[in-house]
């Protein structure tokens, strides 16, 4: 289980990154856990398996697959949900936005239940958060806020959506998306986030250096 007050680190690398190798990302996962991360978010079957060998904290697994004609791309078919489970993840991060998808959400949630993996729902709006809860999500995260047409991109985390979700849902709500500082994390917890996810601000050296130069 992901404990209240946890910092989750998304250990991923962009497709053109030299870090995009399972053994490298597993080493990064080890380091962030040693630094205090209480869960990690990991993309790709081989990388999930590599990370599972070296950390004991919960793993939120996902598979990103671009499919022609469909917008949803994070763990968007039932077979991916099952593969994530058997690679060693404790949770499956799933795109639960109201966008075109190759398989219906009901199918994905049913497969998750069958293989006994908990669902970490990535959403962009309050309506999507409510639906995710109704479908049986164990956690609802603001991951997609600002990355779909339904909601504008905020300068920093979408605290307004976080507050709406916290006030209307009974499942734990996770703040994710554009979290870049200790102040962002603290604000998330002040507003009722169960946990907070930070990604590129920790695990993307190229992005970090670019931001320092631009700053």
From TrEMBL:
The keyword Isomerase is assigned to this record: yes
A GO molecular-function descriptor: N-acylglucosamine-6-phosphate 2-epimerase activity
Presence of keyword Ribosomal protein: no
InterPro entries, sorted: Aldolase_TIM (IPR013785), NanE (IPR007260), RibuloseP-bd_barrel (IPR011060)
UniProt keyword terms in alphabetical order: Carbohydrate metabolism, Isomerase
Involved pathway(s): Amino-sugar metabolism; N-acetylneuraminate degradation; D-fructose 6-phosphate from N-acetylneuraminate: step 3/5
E.C. code: 5.1.3.9
GO biological process: N-acetylmannosamine catabolic process; N-acetylneuraminate catabolic process
EC top class named in words: isomerase
Reactions performed catalytically: an N-acyl-D-glucosamine 6-phosphate = an N-acyl-D-mannosamine 6-phosphate
The protein's name in its UniProt record: N-acylglucosamine-6-phosphate 2-epimerase
Biological source species: freshwater metagenome
């Amino acid at each position: 289980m992901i404990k209240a007050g946890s910092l989750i680190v998304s250990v991923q690398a962009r497709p053109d990154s030299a870090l995009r190798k399972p053994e490298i990302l597993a080493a990064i996962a080890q380091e962030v856990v040693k630094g205090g991360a209480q869960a990690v978010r990991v993309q790709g079957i081989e990388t999930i398996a590599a990370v599972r060998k070296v950390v004991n904290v919960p793993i939120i697994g996902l598979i990103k697959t671009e499919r022609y004609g469909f917008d949803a791309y994070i763990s968007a078919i039932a077979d991916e949900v099952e593969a994530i489970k058997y690679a060693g993840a404790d949770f499956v991060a799933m795109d639960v936005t109201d966008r075109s998808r190759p398989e219906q959400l009901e199918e994905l949630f049913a497969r998750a239940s069958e293989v006994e993996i908990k669902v970490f729902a990535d959403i962009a709006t309050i309506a999507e958060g409510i639906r995710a809860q109704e479908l049986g999500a164990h956690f609802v995260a603001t991951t997609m806020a600002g990355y779909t047409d339904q909601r504008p991109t905020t300068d920093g985390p979408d605290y307004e959506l976080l507050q709406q979700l916290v006030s209307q849902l009974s499942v734990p709500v996770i703040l994710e998306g554009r979290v870049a500082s200790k102040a962002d994390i603290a604000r998330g917890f002040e507003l009722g986030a169960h946990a907070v996810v930070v990604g590129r601000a920790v695990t993307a050296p190229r992005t970090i250096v670019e931001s320092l130069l631009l700053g």
